[in-house]
Structures are given as structure tokens and as C-alpha cells.
């Protein structure tokens, strides 16, 4: 099946964010396969200009799309809905690229016949927003143009030059300190330091070691560089073959982070540098994620939705769905996702000098307290608290003052369906074990308070609590809820109690 007219939507093509790179590579890949990609993005810049030079139409006005598409490849809620309103008979696939951003909310419109994500950790969001089971959300892992990102020279026995990408800054101090201790020269690029790189493919091969996340980590691996997966939100560690599968399915992103980016943790990751392993990981990624294989995966998704039944035409139902969509995203309606994000950004500006809002003495782990805690590996917080979604997850907070010695109190409960084996939960603080809990395999376990003694946290800006579920007698001890979500344990409250 070639010659498909594919309309790709995106919120912008004026920068170099992950979805902008995805749009560029997908459009070029489809064109190489004989298809006719077109792009609709309200704002454009250098990437849009490059696509136009390659003969691919890029328009800022939906009325200027040069031909009726056969299929819509939708990124971002507003732009996908605009395309569906313009072409109500054209089937679409909506692709979620972010676990929290408002613009990645799936539009609930009848023209969307398939849902997809680029990371396992995003499936629960799409499932919750659409009512689908998580397994009904297709996983299409990100690809990389292996012609553009070529292998660099052979890696040395020990790293001499390192490059850190900074879309945020929370990881830079730890990286700088760890590299300085090992006499590794470090360069930093990225929006957070005012140094945007338009052609990373020309820069990456000159480095032995790269600190990056998400699509940039994929690009770095494609150049056969050693990669420590991290950014300002946390650290996953050195990419190697034992961790590759989990990192790849987590898009090398926030869902793979297991701890803070401290100098010690970064140093431990650097010390696992192995040039032979780095090449093996990069070669595997190049074999699996090249542009042709990735484009073919998307073309198979298009074929599937084109072959699926369209359902009865009901213009009244279609009009109602569009009206409800417009009402949902009306800025006058409160709370609206994007207006809530604006309010959150204003709060963020107020606390940039000190990080998270202080936790003193305690806080409920609920949606209203998201500014006090940063959660990884959990489902979206609910009014009462939050459920774990992964076997390993973490919670980051900022003590209000120098803390300790003292105690940390947690209120939590397991979710173990009747007949489940006993389960254990190991708790760590900044990577150091605090203790272990045992949960009996019984249904309806009540919440309980547990206390862990901690030493002083003098000089610590952010504290990371890690939770590691360990089954006792079965490979699976975490239960599935009625809506298909995996639930390990509930976390309801966190408090610090100085002695």
C-alpha cells in the first residue's frame, strides 16, 4: 500500500522539541516509502522550512492543506480536532507523547479509530481518558534516522569528553561534579542553558559519553555513544543490554527514572562505562529503530484503521461530539486543562528559586498537592491519593528545613486480590534502604501507617523515596483493577517528623 496521503498534525514546528523531530522524520520516512505526507502546524520554523525544501507541504492554516488526506496522524488535542473537523470522513490515529501535558489529552471524537503511545507508561493515561483497556492502546516506539545519525569513532577505554543535554537544569550540578571528579571534559547544550543545537547529528559523534533522555538518548545511542539516561527530573542510569528493553519501552523518559541526579549516583553510572557494551546497545537500537522499520510500523497502523469499519454515518452524533469537544476546551470553562497548566506555571515561577514547595510537616498524596510532590511510576493522583503503576516507582519532595534525625511516616495499603501471595515493598531514601514491608495476600487490606527512621538530610534540596515491589511466591503479585489498571499499593499520605 503506497501513495497514501497522510496529514500529520502538531502543535508547532517552530522549535526542536521531541514531537517536532518525530514529525520531520515521519514525513521524510513516508515520502521515501512512496507516500504523500502533509503537515498542519499553526506555527512553523526551520524544521518546517526543511520539509518544504524536501517537497513536503507544511501549512499553518487548515484551509491550505493541498489535498484531502486518506488518513490523519494526529499529534496534540487541538490540532487533531481541527483536522477532524475539516475532514470528518477521514479516519485518524491519535498519538500520545506525554504523560501529563494538556495538549496530549486524547480528543474524544468519532473520527479517531486508533490510539497509540510512544511509551508503556503513557498507556494508562490514554486508557483513563478514553475508557479503553490499556492493551487496546497501540505502542509504537520512537524511531531514529540512522542515515542522519551515524556511528562516531571508536570509544576510548575510559570516557574523556562528555555532552549533557539540558531541557531543564536539575541534573547539571550532579553531572558537573561527577565529571570533574573523573577528569572528564563536559559540554552542555539545550534550551535550559540557551544553547540550542540544530544539528545534533554533527555534534554527538565527537563525544564518548552523553547525558540525555527520550528522543535525544535514542539519537545518541544511534551514534554508538555511551549514554547515561537522565534529565532534571531524575536518573535511570547507564544504558546497557540488561536495562535496554525497559528503557526502550519507557522511551528513555521520566517513567524510567528511579532516583535523583546526585553527584554520587551520576558517578556510579559513569563508572559502569563500557565501550563494548555501548556499541552493542547502539547496534541493537539501530537494527530495531531505523527509519524504514519505524515508518513501516506506522504504515501498518494506517492500514489497520483504513480496513476497520467506519460505523454508521450519524451526522448528529458527530456534530454533538465536536460541540462537546469545543465546550471541553473552552477557556471559560473551569477547570480547563490548559488554564490549569497556566496556573501551575505561575506557581512554578514563584518557586523556581527553591524547587518544590516545602513539605513541612506532611501532605496528602492527592491531585491538589501535586506541587509538593513529584511522582514517577504512579497512576494519576486521585482525590484520596495515588496508586502505583509500576514495580519500581518514586516520590520526590523538598524538606522545608534541614531535616533529621527523625522519621518519615507513610500511610499506604496494598492491592492484592483474594488468593494472592504475600508481597514485599522495599522503601529507599535517596538510594539508601530505609526498610521493608510485608503485605499478606488478602483482599481489601486496610491502609496503615508505617514509620522509618532517617538520619539528618542536611544540605539535601530534594529527597527521593523509592518503592520497589518484590513478589514473594509468584512472578506476579500486583493485582489488576476492574478497569484494567495494574495496582500495586496505594500511597495516601507522607509526613516528616523530626525528633
Amino acid at each position: 500500500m503506497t501513495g497514501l496521503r497522510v496529514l500529520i498534525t502538531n502543535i508547532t514546528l517552530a522549535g526542536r522539541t521531541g514531537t517536532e523531530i518525530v514529525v520531520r522524520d515521519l514525513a521524510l520516512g513516508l515520502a521515501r516509502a512512496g507516500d504523500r505526507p502533509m503537515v498542519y502546524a499553526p506555527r512553523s520554523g526551520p524544521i518546517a522550512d526543511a520539509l518544504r525544501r524536501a517537497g513536503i507541504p507544511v501549512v499553518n492554516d487548515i484551509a491550505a492543506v493541498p489535498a484531502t488526506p486518506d488518513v490523519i496522524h494526529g499529534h496534540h488535542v487541538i490540532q487533531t480536532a481541527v483536522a477532524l473537523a475539516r475532514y470528518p470522513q477521514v479516519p485518524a490515529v491519535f498519538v500520545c507523547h506525554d504523560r501529563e501535558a494538556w495538549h496530549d489529552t486524547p480528543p474524544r471524537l468519532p473520527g479517531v479509530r486508533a490510539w497509540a503511545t510512544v511509551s508503556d507508561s503513557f498507556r494508562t493515561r490514554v486508557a483513563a481518558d478514553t475508557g479503553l483497556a490499556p492493551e487496546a492502546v497501540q505502542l509504537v516506539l520512537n524511531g531514529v534516522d540512522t542515515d542522519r545519525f551515524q556511528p562516531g569513532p571508536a570509544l576510548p577505554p575510559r570516557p574523556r569528553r562528555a555532552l549533557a543535554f539540558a531541557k531543564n537544569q536539575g541534573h547539571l550540578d550532579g553531572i558537573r561534579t561527577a565529571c570533574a571528579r573523573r577528569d572528564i571534559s563536559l559540554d552542555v547544550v539545550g534550551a535550559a542553558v540557551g544553547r540550542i543545537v540544530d544539528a545534533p547529528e554533527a555534534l554527538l559523534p565527537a563525544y564518548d559519553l552523553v547525558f540525555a533522555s527520550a528522543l535525544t538518548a535514542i539519537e545518541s545511542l544511534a551514534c554508538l555513544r555511551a549514554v547515561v539516561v537522565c534529565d532534571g527530573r531524575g536518573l535511570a542510569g547507564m544504558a546497557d543490554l540488561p536495562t535496554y528493553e525497559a528503557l526502550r519501552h519507557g522511551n528513555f523518559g521520566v517513567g524510567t527514572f528511579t532516583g535523583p541526579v546526585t553527584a554520587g549516583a551520576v558517578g556510579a553510572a559513569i563508572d559502569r562505562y563500557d565501550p563494548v557494551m555501548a556499541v552493542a546497545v547502539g547496534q541493537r537500537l539501530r537494527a530495531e529503530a531505523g527509519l524504514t522499520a519505524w515508518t513501516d510500523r506506522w504504515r501498518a497502523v494506517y492500514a489497520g484503521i483504513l480496513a476497520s469499519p467506519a460505523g454508521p454515518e450519524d451526522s448528529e452524533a458527530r456534530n454533538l461530539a465536536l460541540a462537546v469537544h469545543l465546550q471541553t476546551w473552552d477557556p471559560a470553562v473551569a477547570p480547563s486543562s490548559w488554564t490549569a497548566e497556566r496556573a501551575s506555571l505561575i506557581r512554578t515561577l514563584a518557586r523556581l528559586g527553591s524547587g518544590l514547595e516545602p513539605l513541612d510537616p506532611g501532605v496528602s498524596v492527592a491531585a491538589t498537592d501535586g506541587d509538593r510532590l513529584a511522582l514517577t511510576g504512579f497512576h494519576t493522583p486521585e482525590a484520596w491519593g495515588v496508586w502505583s503503576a509500576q514495580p519500581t516507582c518514586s516520590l520526590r519532595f523538598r524538606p522545608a528545613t534541614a531535616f533529621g534525625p527523625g522519621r518519615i511516616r507513610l500511610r499506604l495499603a496494598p492491592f492484592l486480590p483474594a488468593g494472592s501471595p504475600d508481597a514485599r515493598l522495599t522503601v529507599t531514601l535517596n538510594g539508601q534502604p530505609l526498610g521493608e514491608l510485608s503485605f499478606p495476600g488478602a483482599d481489601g487490606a486496610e491502609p496503615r501507617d508505617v514509620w522509618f527512621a532517617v538520619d539528618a538530610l542536611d544540605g539535601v534540596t530534594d529527597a527521593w523515596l523509592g518503592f520497589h515491589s518484590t513478589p514473594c511466591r509468584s512472578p506476579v503479585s500486583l493485582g489488576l483493577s476492574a478497569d484494567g489498571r495494574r495496582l500495586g499499593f496505594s500511597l495516601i499520605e507522607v509526613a516528616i517528623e523530626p525528633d
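Confidence is low (pLDDT under 50) at residues 350-355, 472-478. The chain has 13 helices and 25 strands.
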